Structure formats: structure tokens, C-alpha cells
UniProtKB/TrEMBL annotation, chain A:
<dbReference type="InterPro" id="IPR017871">
    <property type="entry name" value="ABC_transporter-like_CS"/>
</dbReference>
<feature type="domain" description="ABC transporter">
    <location>
        <begin position="11"/>
        <end position="257"/>
    </location>
</feature>
<dbReference type="Pfam" id="PF00005">
    <property type="entry name" value="ABC_tran"/>
</dbReference>
<keyword id="KW-0813">Transport</keyword>
<dbReference type="GO" id="GO:0005886">
    <property type="term" value="C:plasma membrane"/>
</dbReference>
<dbReference type="GO" id="GO:0016887">
    <property type="term" value="F:ATP hydrolysis activity"/>
</dbReference>
<dbReference type="InterPro" id="IPR003439">
    <property type="entry name" value="ABC_transporter-like_ATP-bd"/>
</dbReference>
<dbReference type="GO" id="GO:0015833">
    <property type="term" value="P:peptide transport"/>
</dbReference>
<dbReference type="InterPro" id="IPR003593">
    <property type="entry name" value="AAA+_ATPase"/>
</dbReference>
TrEMBL record, chain B:
<comment type="similarity">
    <text>Belongs to the ABC transporter superfamily.</text>
</comment>
<dbReference type="GO" id="GO:0015833">
    <property type="term" value="P:peptide transport"/>
</dbReference>
<keyword id="KW-0547">Nucleotide-binding</keyword>
<dbReference type="InterPro" id="IPR027417">
    <property type="entry name" value="P-loop_NTPase"/>
</dbReference>
<dbReference type="InterPro" id="IPR013563">
    <property type="entry name" value="Oligopep_ABC_C"/>
</dbReference>
<keyword id="KW-0067">ATP-binding</keyword>
<dbReference type="GO" id="GO:0005524">
    <property type="term" value="F:ATP binding"/>
</dbReference>
<feature type="domain" description="ABC transporter">
    <location>
        <begin position="6"/>
        <end position="256"/>
    </location>
</feature>
<dbReference type="GO" id="GO:0005886">
    <property type="term" value="C:plasma membrane"/>
</dbReference>
Length: 338, 331
């Protein structure tokens, strides 16, 4: 972690796309599914990028690409300016580590906690058994687990303790970037707050950069410094956390924010006005992918794909904000069920 | 005032385990009127799902259920035999489960499963049952309802499956619906739609609803009555307004401090935590189950805990009359 240059992005995606070919039925023709469609992100050291969107929007595919588990079909991912894919998996694993959603299925039930946490060190042949043992003890201390758990097994631990083990395993390699994929959604609220506090403390202490994937917008608002909203493989809005939560632009972002159930008695359940279900990613709607569900849709939204429009702190992809495209010529489009 | 639709007094559930008896639910009381929504909120292992299964008579044979009173519209559920319970379930009381993929039968069509309860409980023909199924699918917002009847569960998305579950529960116009985490597996946008649907239909049909959830946001927006459950006991009950705006029990206050509240919690600030873990409920639980994690615990917490009534319909259990020993520093 010698790099102290704060202007250089620690993580950068340049026009990354990932297309899968999906067979439809037994005799159906294979069709392309654009899981990630021309996505560019740049993250500086110490930032937390919250990635939000409904299931099927491509959040987890993006995480897999960053971990080197999937290769992008197009575009490149750079870590500290170096293109991954050119670097091998081992080098990448030292820089980027994951924390997964379910601490029950992501820890090997037949290995002791010590084995689980020290495995990355052994895989990378870092130090001898003495220094590895010392490293495990240190990291247990950091994540707030007592030393005695070293000899225990995952089945003897609570959900919160298991997630601490998963965090310890991710951090023992001293990575720069941690990909957190729904790290608290399997946990009870009282445990969730402990893990969120821990992630926040660790970031400050080790100057970590997080990609924080979550469907819980209240949690994202709390932890993230930047937020990207994904819809059908595209990042439709990206901004600082303040920019997005205080003055969001994209109608989809607004609908997501509206659907957050804050614990305020008597407010009732909000109407998201999203009408239809999430579209099938194999056959995405024409023009702006969001137009069939958009309460603000205009005629040309159905035909013309929107361009990214720069905003003070990021970008938004919506015809409403594209003045050069002349949204005043549009007339409201009728939606099904409204 | 009419007598309530459902009245539960001193409901206790014991589960025999290797080392003795697990006192999973201990002496809970609540009433529910027609058209009312009760939210039972608690963390995993608090006994909230067991409570709902106990009401439906769906506990396993080894699990012991006792209550001094458990009445559904004048029917004594503690004495009801399996025949009476079968006649009630799916007809006058219905249940919606969390995971629609595992609670729908993958080998039968949607239509088949929708019509089953009606054909079983009511003297109607297949045509009438089919018409009712289409009517309800439309009511829960499913387009092309008729063509859905011949589809299988795997052909539907998660949101659609949960709507089918709701339609299925409504087939016989039940008076009581128990929904166990009905929206936990869904996206936030779909969650809001499904909850709205449940609330609107409940109002329209004057149904009573028990909603079991761990999500405080859902509780605040949906509940008429809230029951906070901790380690097998109801530690606080009241209206949504009372529980969220004037929480009395230290556990309720602790939970509310644990969640980031947009607009209230400062971004990136430390969240409140509840230290420690849930106590072991095997073998005689005495005193307050929360005392090992409570900032306000005193020696008296080991003894019997009094019921307090700070306002009409607002109750909590704590040795401290105000729920505090000393003033709390607000985080």
C-alpha cells in the first residue's frame, strides 16, 4: 500500500461488457443475454461504491468480473492502472478479495476456523506456519473474534461470527479492494449493525476500497461514498451518495428510493408506480430499457437509447436530462396498467 | 365492542431436545380484531414463526403446545381435533409462506393448486372454481390470468409466484391470514407492491392479518398493532405509533438504533449495537431473557418481570417502570 497518489483510480472499468449465450428451450436458437452492457466505473482509494439494482440487473456478474472469475466479453478492468486478464489470478487475488452474502454456505464446514482464515496465505506460500499462525491471531483480533475460535468449526458459530470469519479471510491477504456482495442481508438487524460498523472501521484503518453490492438502500446510503444504479446491465445513474440520495435524477432511482420502507409509523406503503415486472434480460425493451415502467416516459424513449449525460457529480442516462436531444418534443407515452 | 376474532392467552411452546426442554415460546398473549393487522417482529430464533404455526395447528407431533385460551371466532383451538383444524385451514384461516418456490408444488399447475382449497372446502364445481381462480389472479395484479392457470410454478418470476401464493390464500375469503415473511425474498420494488396489495385486499375483505417479519420498515408501514418478540416472549406490544415513536422496552429501543434510518442517522456514523447473544432457552428460563444484553440490567431482572402499561393498549415487560435505569445517551 505504498501508493499514496489519490488521483489515480485504484479500480477502473472501461466500457466493460459481458454477453452470455442462452438457449431458449430444447430446440430454441441460442440468444445473447447482455448481462453487462458497456459499463465504465472509476473508483479512488478509500471510496465505497454502492451498487444497487433489482435481481437480474447484472450486479453479481460485475462482481465476478472484478474477482477474475469471469472474463469480460469487451472492455478492460484496471487495478492500479494495470489491466487484469494480463495479470494472473494469483496477483489479482492479492489485491481484490470478496465477502459473500451467506456465511453459512461460503465457509467450508469441515475446516477449522484457523484453516479457513489461513488458506489464502498457504495458497500464496506467504510465510511459514509460525508467521501464518501469528497473522491469523492478529486478524482475529482486528475483526473482533476471540483467539479461542481458531480450533472451532463454522457450525459452532453464529451468523455474525461466521461473517467476521469471512471478513478475516478476505483481509488476511491485505487486499486494496474488497468486493462485498450483500454482506449483511442474511443477518439479523442487531448483528447487521455490528458488521456494518466493523466494515466502516476497517476501511478507515486500512484505507480499503469497497464495492458494496446491496439491495438495501438504507444500508447503501449509510456506508457508501458513491452510488451506481444498475438496470438491465447498464449503469443508469452514478453519483456521490449525497448527490444521489438528496437530488436523484433518474426516474428509476427515484422509484427505488420511494420503495424504501423507512421505519416511520403511519406513513403507509408507498406506490412505486413501476407498474410492470422487471423485464426479461434476453429480450430487453427497445430504446431506453426502462421506458415500459417509467412514469415519465415520452414517445422517443421507446425508440432512442439515452446517452450518458454528465451531472455535477457523476452521470445519468435519461432523455429527461439530455437537453441536446430535445426532450420537449416528446409527448407522454401511455403505460400498461396506469 | 365485539369480541375479538382471535384471542390468545398464555401460549407456551415446548420442544423436547437432547438435553431437556427448549422453552421456545413462553406465555404470550394477544388479541386480534377483524380487519386488523398485527405485526410480530423479532430476530431469528425468537419464536415468531412457531407462534404462527401453533395457531394453524401445524406444529410437529413432538412439540408441546399449551394455552389457557386460544379462540378463533368462538372456536376453542386448544381443544380442536385435526378434523376441525383441517376444515378451518385454507377456508377461514390461511397462510402465506416466505419462499413461494418451495411452498408451491412444482408438479402441479398454478390453476390446479389455486382451485384445490375451494373444491375441498366449498360445494362448487370445477367451472366455478376456475372462474374464481381467474378472478383472484386478476385481483392480485396478474395479467393474462387465464393463460397462467396452465403454467407451472417454475415458469413464473419470484414476484409473480408470491402473488399466486396470495391469490391461493384468498380463494375461500378467509377471515384470518397469517403471512410469514411474505416479502423477504423479493426485490424492494416488488416488496412494496406486494405489501400494498396485502394491505388493500385486507381492508377490502375486512380480513385480519398476522404478519411475521424481522424488517422494522415493513412493520412501521403496515401494522395496526405491533408485538416485539425476544427469545420466546412478547417484550412489548402496542400500536405502530406507540412502539416506533415511544418505544419503552430496552430491546425495542436497541433494535431501532441498529438500523440506519435515512434522514435521521448521519451517513457513515456508528450504528447502535446490541452486544452479546440470545440466551439458551433449554431448561427453565427465569427472569428477563434480555438481561444479559441489556444496559439497564439490575439484580431484580432475575426475578419475575412485571407487565407495565404506560398507555391504553401499550404494554411492555421490564423491572424499570420507564424501561430505563438511567437516562440513555442517544446515539
Amino acid at each position: 500500500m505504498s501508493n499514496t497518489d489519490t488521483t489515480q483510480p485504484v479500480l477502473e472499468l472501461r466500457s466493460v461488457s459481458k454477453t452470455y449465450t442462452v438457449k431458449q428451450g430444447m430446440f430454441g436458437k441460442p440468444k445473447p443475454l447482455k448481462a453487462i452492457n458497456d459499463v465504465s466505473i472509476s473508483l479512488k482509494r478509500g471510496e465505497v461504491l454502492g451498487l444497487v439494482g433489482e435481481s437480474g440487473c447484472g450486479k453479481s456478474t460485475l462482481a465476478k468480473i472484478l474477482l477474475g472469475l469471469e472474463e469480460p466479453t469487451k472492455g478492460e478492468v484496471r487495478v492500479d492502472g494495470e489491466v487484469i486478464g494480463a495479470t494472473d489470478r494469483r496477483t489479482l487475488a492479492r489485491r481484490i478479495q470478496p465477502i459473500f452474502q451467506d456465511p453459512y454456505s461460503s465457509l467450508n464446514p469441515r475446516k477449522s476456523i484457523e484453516d479457513i482464515i489461513s488458506l489464502p496465505l498457504r495458497v500464496h506460500s506467504i510465510g511459514d506456519s509460525n508467521t501464518q499462525d501469528k497473522a491469523v491471531r492478529e486478524i482475529l483480533d482486528i475483526v473482533g473474534l476471540p483467539q479461542r475460535v481458531m480450533r472451532t468449526y463454522p457450525s459452532q458459530m453464529s451468523g455474525g461470527q461466521r461473517q467476521r470469519v469471512a471478513i478475516a479471510r478476505a483481509l488476511i491477504m491485505k487486499p486494496e479492494i474488497v468486493i462485498c456482495d450483500e454482506p449483511t442481508s442474511a443477518l439479523d438487524v442487531s448483528v447487521q449493525s455490528q458488521i456494518l460498523n466493523l466494515l466502516n472501521d476497517l476501511r478507515a484503518e486500512f484505507n480499503l476500497t469497497y464495492l458494496f453490492i446491496s439491495h438495501d438502500l438504507a444500508v447503501v446510503e449509510h456506508l457508501a461514498t458513491r452510488v451506481a444504479v444498475m438496470y438491465l446491465g447498464r449503469i443508469v445513474e452514478e453519483s456521490s451518495v449525497g448527490g444521489l440520495f438528496d437530488t436523484s435524477g433518474h426516474p428509476y432511482t427515484q422509484a427505488l428510493l420511494k420503495s424504501v420502507l423507512t421505519p416511520e409509523a403511519g406513513k403507509g406503503v408507498p406506490d412505486t408506480e413501476l407498474g410492470m415486472e422487471y423485464p426479461n434480460p434476453i429480450a430487453p425493451p427497445s430504446g431506453c430499457h426502462f421506458h415500459p415502467r417509467c412514469p415519465m416516459a415520452m414517445t422517443h424513449c421507446a425508440t432512442v437509447p439515452p446517452r450518458p449525460v454528465p451531472t455535477p457529480e457523476g452521470h445519468v442516462e435519461c432523455h429527461l436530462f439530455d437537453t441536446e436531444n430535445g426532450h420537449d418534443t416528446g409527448t407522454p407515452l401511455m403505460r400498461e396498467g396506469v | 365492542m365485539n369480541s375479538p376474532l382471535l384471542r390468545v392467552k398464555d401460549l407456551t411452546i415446548d420442544i423436547p431436545v437432547g438435553g431437556g426442554t427448549l422453552n421456545a415460546v413462553r406465555g404470550i398473549d394477544f388479541d386480534l380484531n377483524r380487519g386488523e393487522t398485527l405485526c410480530i417482529v423479532g430476530e431469528s430464533g425468537s419464536g415468531k414463526s412457531l407462534t404462527s404455526l401453533a395457531l394453524m395447528g401445524l406444529l410437529g407431533g413432538r412439540i408441546k403446545r399449551t394455552a389457557s385460551q386460544m379462540e378463533f371466532d368462538g372456536i376453542d383451538l386448544t381443544k380442536a381435533n385435526s378434523k376441525t383444524m383441517r376444515a378451518l385451514r385454507g377456508d377461514r384461516m390461511a397462510m402465506i409462506f416466505q419462499e413461494p418456490m418451495t411452498s408451491l408444488n412444482p408438479a402441479f399447475t398454478i390453476g390446479n393448486q389455486l382451485m384445490e382449497a375451494l373444491l375441498l372446502h366449498r360445494n362448487v364445481g370445477k367451472e366455478a372454481a376456475r372462474a374464481r381462480a381467474i378472478e383472484l389472479l386478476e385481483k392480485v395484479g396478474i395479467t393474462a390470468a387465464e393463460s397462467r392457470l396452465s403454467q407451472y410454478p417454475h415458469q413464473l418470476s419470484g414476484g409473480l409466484r408470491q402473488r399466486v401464493m396470495i391469490a391461493m390464500a384468498l380463494m375461500c375469503e378467509p377471515e384470518l391470514i397469517i403471512a410469514d415473511e411474505p416479502t423477504t425474498a423479493l426485490d424492494v420494488t416488488i416488496q412494496a407492491q406486494i405489501l400494498r396489495l396485502l394491505v388493500d385486499l385486507g381492508r377490502e375483505m375486512n380480513m385480519a392479518m398476522i404478519l411475521i417479519t424481522h424488517d422494522l420498515g415493513v412493520v412501521a408501514r403496515v401494522a395496526d398493532k405491533v408485538a416485539v418478540m425476544y427469545a420466546g416472549e412478547l417484550v412489548e406490544t402496542g400500536s405502530a405509533d406507540q412502539v416506533f415513536n415511544a418505544p419503552m422496552h430496552p430491546y425495542t429501543r436497541g433494535l431501532l438504533r441498529c438500523i440506519p434510518q435515512p434522514g435521521k442517522t448521519e451517513r457513515g456514523a456508528r450504528l447502535g449495537t446490541i452486544p452479546g447473544i440470545v440466551p439458551n432457552l433449554v431448561g427453565g428460563v427465569t427472569g428477563c431473557p434480555f438481561r444479559t444484553r441489556c444496559d439497564h440490567a439490575v439484580a431484580a431482572c432475575r426475578n419475575a418481570i412485571p407487565h407495565r402499561k404506560p398507555a391504553e393498549n401499550h404494554r411492555f415487560r421490564c423491572v424499570h417502570e420507564t424501561g430505563h435505569q438511567t437516562a440513555e445517551t442517544v446515539v
